[in-house]
Design brief:
With 157 residues, the chain is α/β, with parallel strands linked by helices. The protein has a single domain, classed as 3-Layer(aba) Sandwich (Rossmann fold). The chain has five helices and six strands; from the N terminus they run E-H-E-H-E-H-E-H-E-H-E. Strands 4-3-2-1-5-6 form a six-stranded parallel β-sheet, sandwiched between helices. Helix 1 packs across helix 2 and helix 4 runs parallel beside helix 5. The longest helix is centred in the N-terminal third of the chain and has 20 residues.
Length: 157
């Protein structure tokens, strides 16, 4: 895939319910803006929270935006092991509708989440991020993207 037309999403697993509508609207605007600039491939990591929100949006916009695709880069096959039943159902629907799925490992490893995040960044030229903390995987991924000169659009601020 051409990284010049590829965007990835990174964000927290927990989205406060009072911010969800605002964040959803901001992500949709970002996707539409990037689409107007030629972006067609959007990568999600499949985690609960922001990842699933973004994947759902890309899938919904497929009906309207010709050529847009959802690609999943999953850290491991058993990523959903600790998801709730509702989260597992959403995850299964996203996996079934994705245009392409890459899985890094059969089972969870200590580094698989960070490796997934780096792979998403390495294959993209833009990031859409929901990050409200300076620590953790999302903050690390934004920092990694910055070192790679990947433009990052922040939402939820």
């Amino acid at each position: 895939m051409d990284k010049n037309i590829t965007c990835f999403f990174t964000g927290h697993r927990n989205i406060p319910s009072q911010k969800r509508e605002k964040i959803t609207a901001q992500v949709e605007r970002a996707i539409r803006m990037l689409y107007s600039r030629g972006y067609r491939s959007f990568i999600c990591g499949g985690a609960v929270g922001f990842d699933q929100l973004c994947a759902d949006l890309v899938l919904r916009l497929k009906n309207e935006l010709e050529g847009i695709e959802l690609r999943l880069i999953l850290p491991c096959l058993d990523q959903d092991k600790f998801f709730t039943d509702k989260q597992k159902e959403s995850y299964r629907k996203i996996r079934a509708a994705a245009d392409k799925i890459d899985v890094l490992y059969q089972n969870y490893t200590r580094s698989c989440m960070l490796e997934r995040n780096r792979k998403m960044a390495d294959e993209s030229s833009v990031c859409v991020a929901y990050c409200i903390k300076d620590t953790g995987g999302t903050a690390y991924t934004i920092g990694y993207a910055a070192k790679k000169n990947i433009l990052t659009y922040r939402v939820g601020l």
